[in-house]
Design goal:
The protein is built from six helices and five strands; from the N terminus they run αβαβαβαββαα. It has one domain: Glutaredoxin (3-Layer(aba) Sandwich), CATH 3.40.30.10. It is globular. The chain is α/β, with parallel strands linked by helices and 143 residues long. 44% of the residues lie in helices and 19% in strands. The longest helix is centred in the last third of the chain and has 15 residues.
Length: 143
Amino acid sequence: MTYPEVLIAPMREELTRLGIEETRTPEQVRAALRRSGTLLVVVNSVCGCAAGKARPGVAAALRHVPRPDAAITVFAGADLEATEEARRHFAPYPPSSPQIALFKDGRLVYMLERHQIEGRMAGDIAASLTAAFDEHCRAAQAV
């Protein structure tokens, strides 16, 4: 069962208005993961930690330079097949919602899991992400 679109549309928009590409099919996820460079993958969710911490943390992190070359999002509980496809590439990390991954040339280089999001402030999440960006992204890149 999936969440009604009317319920999640504002949550989707929180990320897409940042320039994050929405991927709703497995094919779109695979195509994004085949790109060279760095790619941020955000597993969006209706849970409170996504609303209060993960999405605002991602927004703050994407103002940082360096940042990923591109970013995509899938919505757990809505884009079921796309979310499953993204998570296939997250091994050895188990599925969680929300969840934020960083890929470099198709290889997973960083993961922020739900247990690392819950109980933290958005600024702390942004700091974790920007540290990963500093390590893996080039300074001249933008989402």
